[in-house]
Write a structure and sequence with these properties.
This protein is α/β, with parallel strands linked by helices and about 500 residues long. The protein has helices at about 15-25, 50-60, 75-90, 105-125, 140-145, 165-170, 195-205, 220-225, 265-270, 295-330, 360-370, 400-415, 425-430, 440-450, 465-470, 475-490, and strands at about 95-100, 130-135, 150-155, 175-180, 205-210, 240-245, 255-260, 270-275, 280-285, 335, 345-350, 355, 375-380, 385-390. It is about 40% helix and about 15% strand. Helix 2 packs antiparallel against helix 10 (about 295-330) and helix 11 packs across helix 12.
Length: about 500
């Protein structure tokens, strides 16, 4: 009897060793996730055996479905342990409750949904606003777009890069459902004045969320290691929810996060329940329904293995690396550190004749990448200068001197390159374009001009592309980037 034909695009079965070999080959083109040379996206504790522990814990729970804890009761035990640990670390009293999520974006989305629904049901707000500093993570704008809320953005202090508490207080209206502060902000690594912002929100009966996705699992341990860290967590009056990622300075695998609420009444707004269909009764605490419990198990295992003293020691290593990096950057001619970094995040720009030089900065990023380092370019925004962002981890302690040495050489090489500029006429033309009115052919033409067309992906050197993107209006930039990513995931 003939067998069914192989579906289009699906090859014949192959030995497991061959499949794994192909995966390893594909992985070879990626930036390294261990060794301390990739200064964004990855968090390397530098601890022997930790990756193996995480992988083994994931494997033990990979087939467990986290959808129904009545069938798999160990899921509830693991989540309660993790959420309890986060609450204890982050100022939670006896009433604090929370959930394990797939990452910071989901934690933020859930906190925003909770605030929207709370404002709707308890204050009668029908057109809710989300009040946030201009440095708040893009995930808040994503949540507002998904949930039908109006984002209200308040500029930050142009010197410190911290949220302006007075301006935030003045921007609160009867429609404000949630006020946001960051501890720290991702872009510049500075901690917002959480106490002042939370107090202003409480005075108006408005919820306040602290985005501690990146800082929540290191700031308390930096404090234990002797660093001066201002209050930022649920111990601060007026803070009603907080997000913390375990896959950042908790060193669990992606994606693992926790969202916390001051009490069960708030968390209840996060849940979705539905019994109006003929299938099983549905109660989803988070966005996901069916989900592997593998990530929950490996986060639980990593936190149990590292422990309090371990995290304090790792935080001290990050602080040491940050101190040495900042000292080296501040000694480097024409390099300017932005703000007062507090939690392992550093942003710096470079000047020519006392003025931030975007072309030089992006040439520097390209030169560093050719030397085996990834520093994350961040473009200018609302008067804030373009910069290179670095996330330090314990594994970078032994790399700081080499980084600074290469940075000096890369900066000299970048200065020898011709500046990248944008034709003023093109910039003027772009400013008059309506992104929503552009057809596919017009978008393809603009992408090709920007060096993003065809099947080649990003060019080896990205300075020309990023200089052009920096000059484009925000909506056009977003449309082009959306189309570019769509061209990568083209099937």
């Amino acid at each position: 009897m003939p067998t069914d034909p192989t579906p289009p695009g699906l090859p014949q079965g192959r030995p497991a060793a061959d499949v794994l070999a192909e995966l390893r080959s594909l992985r070879g083109a990626d930036a390294p996730t261990r060794g301390g040379r990739t200064f964004a996206y990855v968090y390397d504790a530098g601890l022997d055996g930790l990756d193996e522990l995480a992988a083994a814990a994931y494997t033990a729970y990979a087939t467990v479905n986290g959808l129904d804890m009545t069938v798999f009761p160990s899921v509830a035990r693991l989540e309660n342990d993790l959420v309890g640990a986060a609450a204890a670390l982050l100022g939670g009293g006896p009433d604090v409750q929370g959930s394990f999520t797939s990452g910071g974006t989901e934690s933020i989305l859930l906190a925003v949904k909770t605030a929207r629904d709370q404002a709707r049901s308890e204050r009668g707000v029908t057109e809710p606003q989300l009040l946030l500093p201009s440095t708040a993570h893009a995930a808040f704008h994503k949540a507002a777009a998904y949930l039908g809320m109006e984002p209200v953005v308040v500029p930050v202090d142009p010197v410190t890069y911290r949220a302006d508490a007075a301006a935030t207080a003045a921007a609160i209206t009867p429609r404000t459902a949630l006020v946001v502060a960051s501890a720290p902000s991702y872009a510049h690594g500075v901690i917002d004045p959480v106490a002042e912002i939370a107090a202003a929100a409480a005075d108006r009966g408005v919820l306040c969320h602290v985005d501690a996705c990146i800082g929540g699992w290191i700031l308390p341990y930096l404090r234990r290691a002797g660093r001066d860290i201002p209050p930022f967590d649920l111990s601060v009056p007026g803070v009603t929810s907080l997000s913390v990622d375990l896959h950042k300075y908790g060193y669990a695998d992606k994606g693992a996060s926790v969202v916390l609420y001051r009490d069960a009444g708030l968390r209840r707004h996060q849940y979705f329940a539905h019994a109006g269909w003929p299938g099983y009764p549905v109660v989803n605490p988070t966005v996901q329904g069916t989900k592997s419990a593998g990530l929950l198990a490996q986060a639980w295992a990593v936190l149990r293995h590292v422990g309090e003293d371990g995290y304090t020691g790792l935080a001290a290593r990050v602080a040491e690396a940050t101190d040495r990096l900042l000292a080296g950057l501040r000694k480097t001619d024409d390099v300017h550190v932005l703000g007062d970094p507090s939690a392992g995040l550093v942003a710096f720009t470079v000047h020519t004749s006392g003025v931030p030089d975007l072309s030089l900065l992006l040439h520097l990023a390209d030169e560093m990448r050719e030397r085996g380092w990834y520093l994350q370019p961040q473009l200018s925004f609302d008067g804030l200068p373009p910069n290179l962002h670095l996330t330090l981890t314990p594994a970078t302690v032994g790399q700081v001197d080499a980084l600074l040495t290469d940075l000096t050489g890369a900066l000299s090489a970048a200065r020898a390159l011709p500046p990248v500029t944008v034709d003023p006429g093109l910039a003027e033309l772009a400013a008059g374009l309506d992104p929503s009115a552009l057809g596919p052919e017009e978008v393809a033409a603009v992408l090709a001009f920007a060096g993003l067309g065809g099947d080649a992906g990003l060019p080896a050197r990205t300075a020309p592309v990023l200089v052009l993107l920096d000059a484009l209006p925000g909506p056009l930039k977003e449309r082009l980037l959306t189309e570019f990513v769509g061209s990568i995931f083209r099937i």
